[in-house]
Design brief:
About 45% of the residues lie in helices and about 15% in strands. By secondary structure, the chain is α/β, with parallel strands linked by helices. Strands 3-2-1-4-5-7-6 form a seven-stranded mixed beta sheet, sandwiched between helices. The chain is globular.
Length: about 300
């Protein structure tokens, strides 16, 4: 199953990271190694790849497919929110490139036991790190109605959040909600029929919100981006692929603040103002090509932003 994983916007990532032999590159969401394998080919010989991921199963797969590389490979199970300390422990002071590919990989989505999909009988899990205690079932069955509504509204950007939260609380009083298909039915019943006919699967936003809460995705990204920018050497590149507007706005703001509004095209002879840390390489986010989106529908919502360390 992992062998079917397709790295999103691979050519765009390689063009903007611009990895070369001998470079040190961090894949902060290495997953099943799709981007990492291509990066390794370009930083060999003599380069170093540091791969970080919460998912131990994914790291085991990546360890196998990167074995034998002429570059050095360092894999660490951990949270990219701790990027700085992970790099320090690995003896890495600064990097030439850092990649974040946010969201859920295809192997995780396709594994019924991981609980990321809507399929019948799928457990409400959604943990990237299967060793942590908090899972989606605990959120759904133990959080108060107001907190559930806040999460669904804030992380899922769902207009019917309060109504969905109320329906969840009413239904869990009858019996615990432990499978995805039961939660889907509750969400469907909470959303008026006229609204269900628009915007894709009616439970998509609620499931996104639960996954983000379980894995702390927003707060982890807020912690990780300043560390990543701080660990880039001069001329180093950071590339981030996000899959929904919350993440994209965080990345845009982090890049903008570090660039002090100096969003200058890469070919421009102009220089960022004194004190700027970054030069933004993508004033507007790059999107998957129409052919890639047709071949891999799961990548259709992807947005890629990139920047370069200037000082």
């Amino acid at each position: 199953m992992a062998s079917m994983h397709r790295p999103v916007m691979l050519q765009e990532v390689l063009r903007l990271l611009d990895p070369k032999p001998g470079m040190t590159v961090v894949d902060a969401t290495v997953g099943y190694g799709g981007h990492a394998r291509a990066i390794l080919e370009r930083i060999s010989p003599g380069g170093t790849l540091i791969g970080i991921d919460l998912d131990g199963e994914a790291l085991s797969w990546t360890e196998r497919i990167t074995a034998g590389s002429t570059a050095s490979v360092i894999l660490r199970q951990g949270n990219f929110a701790d990027l700085g300390s992970i790099l320090t422990a690995a003896g890495i002071r600064e990097a030439n490139g850092i990649l974040f590919d946010l969201g859920v990989s295809s192997p995780q989505l396709d594994d019924r036991e991981r609980g990321f999909s809507y399929r019948e009988g799928t457990p409400l899990d959604m943990r990237m790190d299967r060793g942590q205690e908090l899972d989606a079932a605990r959120v759904v069955n133990e959080y108060g109605e107001r907190e559930l509504a806040r999460i669904i509204r804030e992380y899922g950007e769902e207009r019917w959040a309060s109504r969905i939260a109320r329906f969840i609380v009413e239904e869990r009083e009858r019996a615990p909600i432990i499978t995805a298909d039961r939660l889907v039915e509750i969400v469907k019943n909470a959303i008026p029929a006229s609204a269900r006919r628009r915007g894709g699967h009616p439970a998509r936003r609620t499931f996104q919100a639960l996954r983000m809460e379980v894995n702390g995705e927003k707060r982890n990204l807020e912690r990780a981006l300043p560390q990543a920018i701080g660990r880039l050497g001069k001329g180093g590149r950071i590339v981030v692929i996000s899959y929904h507007s919350i993440e994209d706005r965080l990345v845009k703001k982090a890049f903008r603040d570090s660039a002090r509004q100096c969003e200058i095209p890469p070919a421009s002879p102009a220089r960022p103002s004194r004190g700027a840390l970054l030069r933004v390489l993508t004033p507007r986010p790059l999107l998957p090509s129409s052919s890639e989106a047709a071949d891999n529908p799961r990548c259709r919502s992807a947005k890629l932003r990139a920047a370069e360390r200037t000082a």
